[in-house]
């Protein structure tokens, strides 16, 4: 490591550290401003601050629509992340452990949602649901989110599957275990950390997703859709910002947990 | 036999799900784009017509906006990469033991809500927003600056802000894979630090740079949310016309045809770029 540091010296630029610090400050500035104004007593987002208050947070918890929208988002995220994780893990297992003719096709199909512009997918699903006579609801949003999150799950779980020795599975099969049971008893427990972190990624993707939800949500808005609809009303702004700050902290906790689980999984394999 | 059952139980559900909720919708939209108008039931039979495509072909402003959107996505990707590269370099070669912490610090803004980060720029740039009111309060300006929000540059600035941490990830991954021995050899052969960077580090990090480019370019071309919030009518992108035809203007066949154009152009650009990359790899 020290060796690396001493020779890596391509240009030794003293300002790199400064650049990093400056960029970090720039990245946090807008978020810090939001944070600051969530405690500001005035209703407009302008300086000078009018004194500190917690009233926006109090009003937030007294507002049933806000809590309902947050609840909707959690329902959609929970449902779609479970769906995406199950389907994506299956795709990863098939791709990494079987040789078959449609392999390239399945891989392309599973990755394609990453490449199709989100607005195109949104209106296409809208057309589908209208054509099929399905009313827009939390279900339709969850279905859309499953499609969007699936490639991430496939990538995360495949990476883990590529990293462990198929000999374990072969040994179990030599002992006469059918492959289905080998997957349940040996493969799944071994890849569990990556499956959990894929699930958390899918969960946060759904929680944060707005472009699809705006088209696919019916009368029940998810949280970002609700937030967007409230932006028109200036008087509601501080409450929305308080909400945004809470949401920020919540997502952050989830992501840190996901990262922690993933690292632990990696550490376990190194040992 | 056993193997076969396992294979089908695993592969059938994802195939069916993606078929139903990914491929079928795209096919339906393709079909819809050959419809003349919105008369009658959505699924009633219609005589296929090229009317929508002819109309689109004749309206220059659509194509101009598509070109502008592609150029904006290109610019955003290039600028985000230019700003992220030194950070990635810092993380891999300079941060040392603090690298993990520095990376988390960089990613925290990225992990917070997308809508929120875009919104925060709306509040910052608005005519009575944080930047203007702060400058007024400090008596640095007499009149609020009006051009900050609702412009193409507001969209570009916001999107660069959004993508910088994301662009740094694949670049730092590529930098991490560079063998330190290569740099040692270059140093032993008398290459100056700058020369080592241009001849060794930069070329070896190009795969990461390209990955970053696509990871930013693809979602930016199809963007409609950021223009909606900070772009206004002057800063709208191609995605916004599609959105309009499916909401306010309620001309779905036109919107479907515009979507197909966007889908084809995006996929072509990606295929083309993937080709160029392979060619370069063959040469290099």
Q: How would you characterize this protein structure?
A:
The complex is a heterodimer of chains A (271) and B (284). Chain A is mainly α and 271 residues long. Chain A folds into two domains: 11-53, no CATH class; 63-270, MetI-like fold, CATH 1.10.3720. Chain A has helices at 2-7, 15-37, 55-61, 64-97, 103-115, 118-131, 138-162, 167-174, 179-208, 211-216, 223-230, 237-270. In chain A, helix 3 (55-61) packs across helix 12 and helix 4 packs across helix 11 (223-230). Chain A is globular. Chain B is mostly helical. Chain B has twelve helices and no strands. Chain B is globular and about 75 Å long. Chains A and B meet through helix 1, helix 2, helix 4, helix 5 and helix 6 of A and helix 1, helix 3, helix 4, helix 5 and helix 6 of B.
Mean pLDDT of chain A: 84
**SSE-based structural type of chain B:** mainly alpha
Q: Largest interface by residue count?
A: A-B, 87 and 96 residues
Main sheet specs of chain A: none
What's this entry about, in short?
The complex is a heterodimer of chains A (271) and B (284). Helix content of chain A is 77%, strand content 0%.
Tell me the layout of helices and strands.
The complex is a heterodimer of chains A (271) and B (284).
Chain A: H1 2-7, H2 15-37, H3 55-61, H4 64-97, H5 103-115, H6 118-131, H7 138-162, H8 167-174, H9 179-208, H10 211-216, H11 223-230, H12 237-270
Helix pairs in contact in A: 2-12, 3-12, 4-5, 4-7, 4-9, 4-11, 5-7, 7-9, 8-9, 9-12
Chain B: H1 2-32, H2 51-58, H3 60-94, H4 99-111, H5 114-125, H6 130-137, H7 152-176, H8 180-188, H9 193-221, H10 225-231, H11 238-246, H12 252-283
